[in-house]
Amino acid sequence: MQNTRRNALKFIGGAAAGAVLTPVPWRLITDTALWSENWPGIPRPLQGEVSTRYTNCSVCPAGCAVRARCVGGQPVSLAGVAGHPLSRGGLCAFGVAGHHLPYCPGRLTAGPVEAAAGVIARAAANCNAAAAGTPGAVCNPGETIGVLDLRPGRTASWTYRRAMGTVKGGLYLTAGEPFSGAAVDLSKARTVLSLGAPVLDGWGTPGNVLAARANFRLIQAEAIESRTASLADLWLRIRPGSASTLALGIAKALKKGSVAGAAEATGLAEAQITDLAAELTQHGPALVLPGYDCPEAWALNGLVGEFGVTVVARPEAPVPEHWNKNCAPVTPLASIADGSIRTLIIDESAPGDHIPWGAIRRKLVADNPVVIAFASSPAGYARHSLFTLPTAVYPETLEDIPAAIDSPRAAFRLAVPLVAAPAGVVNPPEFVAKAAGIDATNALRERADAICKTGRGVLITYTDGRAKPVAQVAPDDFWRALNAGACWLDTESRRAAPPHADWTAPDARPAENARLPLVAVLAETAPAAPASPLMTKLDRESNLRLGPSRAALHPETARSCGAADGGRAVLETALGKCPITVVVDASVPPGVVQVAASPEVIDICGAGARCRVASL
Amino acid sequence: MDRRFIPAGVSRCSTAKFLLWLAPWAAMLAFGLYSAGLCLVKGLNQTHMNNRFAFGLWIFLDLTVIALGAGAFFTGFLLYILKRKELRAVVNSAVVIGLMCYGGAMAVLGVDVGQPLRAWFTFWYPNVHSMLTEVTFCISCYLGVLAIEYVPIVLKNRKLRQVPHFLVFEHELHKLVYVFAGVGTFLSFFHQGSLGGLYGVLRGRPFAFREELGIWPTTFFLFILSAAAVGPSFILLTTWLVQKIARKPLVRPQVLRSLGRISGLLLAAYVLLKAADTVVWLRRTTPRSGFLPAQYYAWKPFGVWILFAEMALFLVPMVILLLPKLRARAGWLVSAAAMACCGVAVNRFVLTIQTLALPTLSFDRFLDYLPSWQETGTFLAVLAAAVLVYSLSFRYFGLFPEERELRREPALASESEPVLAGK
Amino acid sequence: MLCVDCHTPREDGTYAGVPPLSRCAGCHTANLGPTAAEREFIAQYVKTKREPEWAVYARQPENVWFSHTPHIRIAKLQCQQCHGEQGRSELPRPYQEDRISGYSRDIWGYQAVGGVVPGMKMDDCIACHRQEGLAHSCLDCHK
Amino acid sequence: MTSEKKPGKIRRYGMAVDIDKCTGCGACMIACAVENNVPPGNRGATDLTGITWLRVFKVDNGEEYPRKESVYFPMMCQQCGVETPCYLVCPQQAVDVDPATGIVGQMPERCLGCRYCMAACPYHARYFNWWDPQWPAGMEKTLNPNVAPRMRGVVEKCNYCHGRWHAAIERAAQAGLEDIDASDYVPACVEACPAGAIRFGDLNDPSSAPAQAARDPQSFRLLVSLGTEPKVYYHSKREWARRIGDPSQAPAPKETSRG
């Protein structure tokens, strides 16, 4: 038959009809459906032997004990260690996802290592030369080198102090709010007055705080309804920035003085303040926790008379004697003269206290200072540094974690590496030590031995949860145990002398400032350190937290700033400006900007800063 | 030049003019296919639907067009089962419209699901409790029926008639047309109903949840009725539109009137039952599930007005279509039909969109939703495809048997002149 | 030849995965038999210490949870009941996998290997679980 | 695929959430995402398109400062026991209720993504994969092998960490036991909560936390008036907070909300 169009059509039609009778189409739909189960782009989880490893979380200074479930050696989920004397099995959101940190997008893995080393060595040499009056020293008098440590009390901190000790006028700097030498014992407290401290929102060791929570009455004096305020037994809604005045008022009440001024300044009734004072003395033991903007309120504990009970000296694990000779003293950054630092080394690898960059910049020499940052992400101080050296992150690092503020007894535990660090990262303390010409490669072991030598305290091993007196442990076993995730805990704690405070000062109303009419309150105590990509579940994929650089305003405040919900605006403080997104929220008190911490925001505004919001 | 394809005895515009008419619709179709493609390739993040607004424009579209497409089965039912001979004039057109409505709905559903490759699971592992299973089965079967019913229309084409086999085939098919009409009616009754059940069973959405009669919620029956009522109106509307666009009479005016009258009668029944249902729902069903009727309408912009608007859009056309005087005037007739169609659209809108917009938990937000251009594009594709297929069918398959007579005897047309130009 | 000669479960009863080359080399360091296949295996893998890329007939899809432990420890099943008499076979069947889905032929949901070996598709699991009254829900076996 | 024979031990797993203890820290949400291989949110994801099997809401009493009070409110699948809405509507049996555990299961590999179940769920506890799941380079190493990652275009939800249920069965078998040890099966959120606000257990066991919560007059469940018998019990001493469960007590529509 000749191939006409009709025949062709017939053939196609017949073929189509026939195909349906073959298995082809049916197999095709099954297989494509199966293919859709594992089509390209869907990762396959690694299979392997399941094991449990222990470590301590070094994401924040709390250092909670961690049980890691590993598959083929790779940690796939983290949880707290139940019954741990310090962290009580607790682990916060950041800790739970800590094992993601090595894979954060934009992580730094390379940097100008040699150059930086040279710079530090030269700067040290210069300082020594200048101090020795050698002619031709590049370093002018009064200009020096310093290390800024955001998490003091670590072995690394001691290494820095020793390194700076080798340099004439070398500085070891901390954020150093006054009386940082205190630790508290929540288990003894029956009444806790928090002057804006985020007691239930990441302060101290979350697990420990929440475990003790049932035993004390929590009074939160705060302007905004923070997480702590909403869960406190009593929430005193004071005027923003009037916490220290309230502390003063309580002191006066205790001394039977007049509280009229304080009442007027804080917006509370006089009776409230006197009752508060009475409660602190009667339903003791009491504890007063100062907030960010009233550190001097520590002294109030002295008046309440609980020093040595709820407040003790900040304990520190023993160190080898020879470390103490010729090591630089601990100097609060605020206490040194402006424009006095030529070369500044910032260790951001262990985030802790945060200092707004503006405050740091003031201490540097005006003409091209040298800033060297140890960081794992470009988001923090790295944005302002001349050299940024990549560091390992938890859980790659081997570092120790000092006792947190809510631990009355000294502790020593290690964040042990669960995964290998990438090539090209540096170990900050060893790096600085090397540049300064001392050897600190073995510092952790030395300190562990020193602790073991004292024979004090107990060693808590997580695998069996048993506490063994150190006296019965050989140094090698001690070290091995620490590296398997274990914790040394001292037995006794030291009394602390209350700091001096002047209780006769006049009741200051929160300083008015026409140009900066608003008060900034940091909504989230999120660390500036990089966090797991999953964290967006808390601010972007839900409204649990305020998203980075979003600021909540009361409708009135927003109106007066001409800002609308979701609108872009600029936040301005004495230290500078940064862009924010406005969230209108009737639950924020008027006159307050509740702003979420983000690198840009905390550059210019420490909590409680005066500020203004200008809509764009 | 396509003269030899055009049915004998009717006049059609020139090819050029026809292509000119097709061009914009073709363009719209192309755009629509592009946006649908985006949704298939990149995933449904191309739409503005979200976890709370799980259904959007597309489901609303499906429910509406299927309600309007009901004209197909109902006209067939009236003609072949109830022997309303005068409807033979529009039955072909009704079939084409039905085919396009259902085809469009199915196509959009294919884009709407996240894993189209697994769509057939519903047939392989059906969950008998689910209304959606019922819908899927009935609609796909009925789509087949419509396709078969469409074949004889295609075979009416002058060229194809020259093939003897086709003639025989068509003849045989014609004998079976009653069967198909019956099957179609049965299937349609079911899926129109299950489409209503789709939301009526949502115990978790008290705004849509309805008491059950037998195993079906009341919306099951209300949807059947409203679809049956509005179907004829839509046929009426489209036929009138085609007459306007083609600028020639295609059916006797009384055909349109009788369509209107049927629509009117059914609307009356619907309005009655709907009112009763609404009362039961507000007074009994809602309080039982712990909600307050007031809450439903507390959220702007969906105030109580929407409830009354919906009722009015059924009530007014009902009155018009039931009054012979008004029905006799094309203007009233057509606008009444149009109103009824809007009424059913609003009804489907309320049940789909408003249901999802309303909060269920006491701390929920009221949600607003605007379709993305990709969603709208897909919607337009269905419209364009429908117009294209209808135009082609109209030009080549002679959808209106009476067109020839009306052309031969202008008397009929002129008699019907005042009606057709009655505004 | 016994299964455990090559495949030993971990002491907790979980499957330890495909045996490593070292285990094969335990016997096949020098030719045991005259077969060319063995000679080639030694030349290709044992000598060069290259891990053979084994094709796993019984590999289940990612979304299936299967643990040997309950089947061995509790149900006391023998390997053969699911894997067939591999120990007795001269040569393994040629490994076939679906081109589109990439699944081994043994676990196709449709038209799996009949007769020769007990199939390893979902229906086969369900059949046995039904018999034992252990089929409760999909999440029994799907993860 | 339900069994002919009756399953051995019939459990009804449920949860007891003390919202007076919840500090809104979000540890449960993150632990949940880690355990169940939920991918980090796509760049375009919002609180309406992201995936959070467990989501903590901030709920207030509708007042303004200073009268305003808030509680934090963890919402997971409420595991409806009767007339389970999602189970009834799924057209192709991708949802089932396990008679042995009472857990409502979702089978992503069976789901065609019609989202009917999401429309049916009054708790909005079901989430759709609007994007292809994507992890930053290297992070896929941290995926939990006990849970299969889902693909784009399917619905997923909380199933009380079924991967852990499997693991518990395996551990039991290793010990030669037919049945799991109750304390050995604990969902990730329960384990992670530093405040111990979420507790988990078998409602058929009178001594379990949820069973006790069920008897507590200060406990309440969400939308219980719908008659779907949810298995998550919330507890609060605050009278206004207990009204959260009752939709008819909802505060009037507000301008903005961050809940």
Folded structure, characterized:
- The complex is a heterotetramer of chains A (616), B (423), C (143) and D (259).
- Chain A is of the alpha/beta class and 616 residues long.
- In chain A, helix 8 packs antiparallel against helix 9 and helix 15 packs across helix 16 (475-483).
- Chain B is mainly alpha-helical.
- Chain B has a domain at 15-256 and 382-400: Formate dehydrogenase/DMSO reductase fold.
- Chain B has helices at residues 15-42, 57-81, 88-112, 121-124, 131-155, 158-161, 164-200, 218-246, 253-288, 293-296, 305-322, 324-327, 330-357, 373-397, 402-408, 410-415, 417-420, and strands spanning 212-213, 216-217.
- Chain C has 2 domains: 3-46, no CATH class; 68-140, no CATH class.
- Helices cover 27% and strands 0% of the residues of chain C.
- Chain C is globular, with a radius of gyration of 17 Å.
- Chain C starts with 20 loop residues before the first helix and ends in a 12-residue tail after the last helix.
- Residues 109-114 of chain C have low confidence and may be disordered.
- Chain D has helices spanning 27-35, 85-89, 116-120, 162-174, 188-192, 209-215, 239-242, and strands spanning 13-18, 55-60, 70-75, 95-97, 104-106, 126-128, 155-157, 198-202, 219-220, 232-235.
- Chain D has 7 helices and 10 strands.
- In chain D, the strands form 4 sheets. Chain D has a 4-stranded mixed beta sheet with strand order 8-1-10-9. A two-stranded antiparallel sheet of chain D has the order 2-3. In chain D, strands 4-5 form a two-stranded antiparallel ribbon.
- Helix content of chain D is 19%, strand content 16%.
- Residues 1-7 and 255-259 of chain D have low confidence and may be disordered.
- Chains A and D meet through strand 3, helix 3, helix 6, helix 7 and helix 17 of A and helix 1, strand 2, strand 3 and helix 5 of D.
% residues in beta strands of chain A:
15-25%
> Which two chains have the most extensive interface, and how many residues on each?
A-D, 72 and 68 residues
Helix/strand class of chain A: alpha/beta
CATH-defined topology of the domain at 15-256 and 382-400 in chain B = Formate dehydrogenase/DMSO reductase fold
The pLDDT mean of chain B sits at: 88
**Form type of chain A:** globular
Q: Structural class of the secondary structure composition of chain B? A: mainly alpha
* Strand segment tally of chain A: 26
Number of helices of chain B: 17
CATH class identity of the domain at 15-256 and 382-400 in chain B:
Mainly Alpha
List the quaternary state of the chains.
heterotetramer
What's the quick description here?
The complex is a heterotetramer of chains A (616), B (423), C (143) and D (259). Chain B is an all-alpha fold and 423 residues long.
